[in-house]
Design goal:
The chain has a single domain, classed as Spore Coat Polysaccharide Biosynthesis Protein SpsA, Chain A (Alpha-Beta Complex), CATH 3.90.550. It is 29% helix and 24% strand. It has eight helices and eleven strands. The protein has helices spanning 18-33, 51-63, 78-86, 115-125, 141-145, 178-183, 196-206, 269-277, and strands at residues 7-14, 39-47, 68-73, 99-104, 108-109, 128-136, 158-160, 163-177, 211-213, 218-219, 260-264. A hairpin with a 2-residue loop joins strand 7 and strand 8 (163-177).
């Protein structure tokens, strides 16, 4: 049996897709109620969220039993918002080895008994855990990788059908140590919207780290009827970072965007019970 680390759940909700947001919030509620829960804080990024989505999230946060930080902005892209969320000041005490559990709004978890113990076991074995995928390196990307200070040229490329591939953890749900991510400067400022998960896989490999498989109850890229890898792309659609390099220049997205930050402290279970007895 593993000693479970603390966790901060970090999620990204987009636009007027309230049904996706509701499913994710129910998943978070189930995880909070599950035996062995380790979540001490929740951070939600609201990218161009409409009023119904904002109202849903706010009402859910008011009922939560732990601090919830809401960060609202225009559609600034997945990774600029992620960068801000991971660097928010902590709203609750946590251990030095606290994990960040990331959710896109088309991912969710079915929390069966023993889920948290299985999660902790997976976290002990690797630096980043989730569903393992492979992706073909796109034209120009390997050339851009070689310009990066973290790139280790002595590591051989992985080939599949004679093509260059990257092993990575699928990006709509994953877990990694918060301090580990910050040491990697993750996500890097150049990342905008697409292709960050495969780049994280490569970054971890070149830092001497390890990716681990964890899929218990995990559903990624899910359509509303629960079909995995069937969620249609919504909102932004961009080339992955490094595509077409050096002909296509690397443009760093704006990170000085306006945000509206809200901290909802929630009430503890004991406080809620006290309200009912008074």
């Amino acid at each position: 049996m593993s000693t479970s680390p603390d966790a901060i759940a970090v999620c990204l909700l987009y636009g007027d897709h309230t049904a996706f947001a509701a499913r994710l919030l129910q998943s978070l509620s189930d995880l909070l109620a599950a035996d062995g829960n380790r979540i001490v804080e929740i951070r939600c990024g609201l990218n161009a969220a409409t009023t119904p989505t904002r109202d849903l999230v706010h009402a859910w946060a008011l009922r939560a039993s732990l601090p919830v930080q809401l960060l609202q902005a225009d559609n600034v892209g997945k990774y600029p918002m992620m960068r801000h969320l991971l660097r928010l000041p902590a709203a609750a005490p946590h251990s030095i080895n606290v994990k960040a559990i990331w959710f896109d709004d088309d991912a969710y978890v079915q929390a069966t008994p023993g889920w948290w113990e299985a999660w902790a076991d997976a976290c002990q074995q690797a630096d980043v855990v989730g569903k393992i995928y492979h992706w073909y390196v796109q034209p120009g990307q390997r050339e851009w990788y070689r310009t990066q200070p973290w790139y280790r040229a002595e590591l051989p490329a992985t080939l599949h059908n004679r093509r260059d591939v990257v092993k990575f953890v699928q990006g709509s749900f994953w877990t990694a140590g918060l301090q580990y991510l910050l040491e990697l400067n993750w996500p890097i400022p150049e990342l905008y919207h697409n292709g960050g998960d495969s780049l994280l896989g490569l970054r971890v490999l070149h830092a001497g780290g390890k990716l681990g498989a964890f899929s218990r109850g995990v559903r990624v890229n899910c359509s509303l009827d629960g079909r995995e890898d069937r969620s249609q792309r919504r909102g932004l659609d961009t080339r992955p970072l490094g595509y077409g390099y050096p002909t296509q220049p690397i443009i760093v997205p704006d990170h000085a965007f306006d945000t509206q930050h809200t901290l909802i402290t929630g009430v503890t279970h004991a406080e809620r019970q006290q309200c009912f007895t008074n």
